[in-house]
Amino acid sequence: MKTFKPAFPGEKNIPVFFACNRNYLPVFAAAFQSLISCSHKEYTYDVWLLIADATEQEKHILLQMIQGYPNISLRFLNFAPFIPLEIQAKLYLSRYISLEAYFRIFIPEVFLCYKKYLWLDSDIIIKEDVAQLYFLDIKDKWVAMAPNVWTIYAAYEGAIRPEGIGMTFKEYLLNFLELKTMTHYCNDGILIMNAEQLRKNNFSKLCLQALERIKKPNYWDQDLINIVCEGHNYPLPLAWNHVWYIQEYEFLKEHLPKDLYEAYHNARQHPKIIHYAGSIKPWITPNKWLADDFWTEARKTPFYPTIILNNTVKRLGFYTKNKGPFNPDWQLIYQVLRLTYLKKLYLKYKLQSNWRLSKKWPLYKKYAQNIKEAIKKTQQVLQKY
Questions:
Q1: Of 103, 107, 81, which is closest to residue 93 (Cα–Cα)?
Q2: What's the rounded mean pLDDT across residues 333-343?
């Protein structure tokens, strides 16, 4: 197996792992920019992006972002080949979750050079130096994760059911996942991972065993890590993983334990990492609370025009048969725009050809006929998609 080395020597080197596919590169770029914005010269930042399909041009653009930052390294790795195919076949995937989500489970066994590292989801904005996060003393705990506030609230509420599961959240956490306490359930989007303890205790193997037991985890890798690490988790302050989708959060007070509600409230006032988890995203809904933090960092990246363009594409409704939120089918978009333009042009000349007092009406009639034929051909092209 290939071996890896830290990008920088010394105790102040901070390994950080991200993972995404090409569709999410503009989102990762904003997260990476926020890490750069909050970095300090006294530390080194050893960043890995686990990605399979980035082009050389895209890698070059991302590396340009750290010119002038000799204490920040960015390396790219196609991580999938490090997971045996027979194991990949067992992983539960869906239209929402790809193989990349499971990478965090296997990193300790591949990157033997690190005793400890950070895992950060790509849909985040960092507001404080991640050195503060990395150097939190988590003792001999295997991981550090923040409580998943919404899931815990739903479990205490008692009647809310996860989509497609057929049981309440309380039943899901206590009976299906077999957690001892509902408040132990955490979000794994931000992790401090004690790699030495994880390797020592066969973390990856235990996760696969948990998957074998529950078969289809509703929250994929997150469920597995919660099962395996219950009792071995250092509770991460919510400010380090402030999930934003609970926009108006006062209703949480009714069912959450008081200390957990107050922790969430305080984290909203001063978040250290904003986690844009859930289906609502700031690049689609810029009017939401905390969305401006995403746009502040996104504007600094070379991918800002791409985000704007793709937002426009989505608003025009070209996503039904598209390749993804940040990798649209440009030929499809061209044909749709062409059809829209031709229809407007046809209406114009059709009306003008009916105005017989004009000497040019025969010419307008011919124009209208030609455009009508072009519309027919464009519609035929679109039927192939």
A1: 103
A2: 82
Residue 281 pLDDT grade (very low, low, confident, very high; cuts 50, 70, 90): very high
Q: Enter the pTM of the model.
A: 0.84
Angle among Cα 234, 129, 184 to the nearest 5 degrees reads 20
Q: How far is CA 73 from CA 82, 83, 191, 236, 354, in A?
A: 22, 25, 20, 26, 67
Instruction: Write the pLDDT tens digit of every residue in 303-330.
Output: 998 888 877 766 655 554 444 555 556 6
Q: Is 360 helix (H, G, I), strand (E, B) or coil?
A: coil
Retrieve residue 330's tokens: 């440009």
* DSSP character string of 179-197: -S-GGG-EEEEEEEE-HHH
Residue with the larger pLDDT of the pair 93 and 97: 93
Q: Give the residue extent of every domain in the chain.
A: 13-315, 330-382
Residue partners of 260: CB distance under 8 A and separation at least 6: 147, 149, 152, 183
Amino acid at 240: W
- Beta strands across the sheet bearing 117-120: 72-77, 44-50, 13-19, 117-120, 186-193, 143-147, 233-235
Q: What is the pLDDT of residues 50-67, one digit of tens each?
A: 999 999 999 999 999 999
- Residues 301 and 65 sit within 8 Å (Cβ to Cβ): yes
Task: Answer whether CATH 3.90.550.10 is correct for domain 13-315.
Answer: yes
172 within 8 A of 158, measured Cβ to Cβ: no
Q: How far apart are CA 216 and CA 213, in angstroms?
A: 9
